[in-house]
Amino acid sequence: MMKYEKECRELIELVGGKKNIRNLVHCATRLRFSLKDSKKAEKNKIEKLPNVLSVVNSGGQYQIVIGSAVADYYGTIQVLLGANNNSEEQKGKWSINYIFEVISGAFSPLIPAMAGSGMIIALLTVLTEFNLLSYDSSTYAILSAASNAIFYFLPIFLGITLAKKLGGNMFVGGTIGAALLEPSFTGLIGESGMNFIGIPLEVVNYATTIFPIFIAMTIYVYVDRFLKRIIFRDIQLFAVPMLSLMILVPLTAIIFGPFGTHVSDSLASGVMFLVDNSNVLSGFIIGGGMTFMVMLGLHWGFTPITLENLTRLGGDPIEGMAVAAVFAQIGIALGFFIKAKKQSKMRALAGPTAITGLLAGVTEPIVYGIILRYKRLIPIVAISGGIGGAINGLTGVTMNAYVFHNVFSMPVYTPTFGYLMGISASLISGGLLAYYFGVKEDEMTDFHTNAPLTEVNERHEKENTLVHSPLTGQVIPLEDVEDDVFSSKIAGEGVAIIPKEGEVVAPFDGIVVMVFPSKHAIGLKSKHGNECLIHVGLDTVNLEGKYFESLVSAGDEVKQGDPIMTFDREKIIAEGYKITTPVIVTDPSSVEKIRYTNDTKQVTPDSILFSIDE
Predict the structure, then answer these.
(1) Residue 108 CB coordination number (10 Å)
(2) Distance separating alpha carbons of residues 487 and 494, to the nearest angstrom
(3) Cα(first)–Cα(last) distance of the chain, in Å?
(4) Residue 2 pLDDT more than 70?
(5) Higher pLDDT, 5 or 591
(6) Within its chain, how far is the Cα of 74 from the centroid?
(7) Distance CA 408, CA 428 (A)
């Protein structure tokens, strides 16, 4: 019998059965299902399964947080599903969920560039408003180019990300987008009597547009597949992209472009009609519901409309209302921070997550780490977000550049007074409601003081598992890790280390229970039965083992200080990955017994990170 076979069979049924699973991948802690219909998944029952720590439905993926047993679950599920149930050929079966998944997959890689560019716009707004920089200066022109480039060339970037998501060649996709911005094509804008081999043609400006390239890429992937079936393999290298470009660029210029432009105009006009006719109600619904849209991944559906509004109207009222949801979440975290005792787990969680929300606009740790853990907070975040959203709707607040909602982005919202009234109302109401009504008395364990130990109890040392540092480097709190599952401690309790060297050693005497296939993570069990996961880097599963070398195998016995892994620190960083390494206790029975024994920031393999009491 396969390991976890019973649990995996039950899990497959609870996500809707084999036929509901489009695709399955995994990382060091999470099973990432792509489901045809996520509504068929029974979240409450899934969370009660052994080893399941949490369920997150986000970004088009139904993520089930397993922890150190994830590889065993994945392997067992793969066998139970069979090869045909996890293939990419499932892609292309269009549904509402799949459309949102495609939108998410297209925009997710671009969000950092878009958010960074938006913050430059905010900076330029401040500098020009206070006459510190002139619109006519070369400095302004260069910074303006930096802020506008991602939006102006959006058809190119979306051509790349959409083609990759849908299964085509991403550079051919980008070339199709680039053709719409090429000077020979843009030079035809405004000219009359244009045609393509006799077919009438009306050329418009496709810079910053979204829907035309979405339509073009959807058709492109089918053209690409068809051409690969009928063209000899020996000449596919040049023939398939050549014919794809010759077919798709004219079709986009003649049909897809004008049609997509009409669709985008209609959607933007429809949304604006609703906002104009019921701005308070629209604000209450968007501000109150945006938190739940983010949880479900539905917020991506607004992104194309938002970008169209920014291009055509100069401002977007949707995000002007949705910003209230972010500050409602931050208010809840602040309310819990004030309510919790010093040195309690809740204060350690709520404080950093509130700061992250305020400074960066990233509130997933608040949503998944706090709001979903305390059910009373669900109506509170809806009410407080709705209040601020209604105020912003009433005062006509718009977001005038694509930014993350944080304290630094205030200059891009107008009118400023309405914006401040709305976010203040959400922040204050969220904090007060969370403080007074957000948690039941019998749920306040994490609010009580849990002072860390400053020295090891020598009398019990032999009975405890002493977890030494597996690395030489700098210790940071787990809450500061830029990964929602680790920072919210869903995967387990512990700390993180920013390594200075590329060698990992065993943190205690025990056995190796798991070596991740991509070699970036290792699970160990101490002689007392405590399980620990060492996860080198964030999202380094994507490197597929490159730059990592495992020195042990599952089942090997190790002594504290034995080398178990090496990695090329510089090359991983050069690839754009963070090398922050969580060291966490993954078995729930041991989490409550952790006692922190090290107050220093710099550690070596001789340093004790924490002990696990027996």
Answers:
(1) 14
(2) 10
(3) 32
(4) no
(5) 5
(6) 21
(7) 19
Please tell me the predicted confidence (pLDDT) of residue 365.
67
* Mean pLDDT, residues 331-341 taken together: 93
Provide the H-helix boundaries in 340-471.
345-360, 364-366, 377-395, 416-437
Res. 83: pLDDT tops 70? no
> What's the average model confidence in pLDDT over 505-518?
88
User: Catalytic residue at 27?
Assistant: yes
Residues 6 or more apart whose Cβ sits within 8 Å of residue 273: none
Q: For residue 415, is the peptide bond before it cis, meaning its omega torsion is within 30 degrees of 0?
A: yes
CA distance 186 to 194: 12
CATH fold of the domain at 458-612: Glucose Permease (Domain IIA) (2.70.70)
Beta carbons of 605 and 505 less than 8 angstroms apart: yes
DSSP of 240-291: HHHHHHHHHHHHIIIIIHHHHHHHHHHHHHHHHHHHHH-HHHHHHHHHHHHH
Q: What are phi and psi of 25, to 5 degrees?
A: -130, 175
SS3 for 563?
strand
Residue type, 611: S
Per DSSP, which regions of 400-515 are E strands? 413-414, 465-468, 473-477, 493-499, 503-505, 510-515
Predicted confidence band at 585 (pLDDT cuts at 50, 70, 90)? confident
59 Cβ contact partners less than 8 Å away, ≥ 6 residues apart: 104, 105, 108, 297, 300
Q: Which residue has the tokens 């002689």?
A: 527
| pLDDT at position 1 | 46
Q: What is the CATH number of domain 5-90?
A: 3.30.1360.60
> Two tokens at 181?
């911005």
- The phi and psi torsions of 437 (rounded to 5 degrees) equal -130, 0
Q: Is the pTM of this model over 0.85?
A: no
User: Residues 27, 405, 468, 532: which is the catalytic one?
Assistant: 27
Residues linked to residue 584 through DSSP beta bridges, in sequence order: 494, 533
pLDDT of 572-582, one tens digit each? 998 889 999 99
Q: Would you call 509 exposed, middle or buried from its count of C-beta atoms within 10 A (0-12, 13-18, 19+)?
A: middle
Catalytic residue among 26, 405, 468, 535: 535
What ranges in 192-252 are assigned the alpha helix state H? 211-230, 236-251
Task: Determine phi and psi for 449, rounding to 5 degrees.
Answer: -60, 135
Q: Which two tokens stand for residue 178?
A: 């680039």
CA 553 – CA 404 distance, rounded (Å): 43
145 pLDDT exceeds 50?
Answer: yes
Catalytic residue check, 405: no
DSSP conformational letter for 179: H
Look at residue 435 and tell me whether its pLDDT is greater than 80: yes
Nearest to 304 by CA among 374, 209, 233: 209
Delimit the domains of the chain by residue range.
5-90, 153-274, 281-447, 458-612
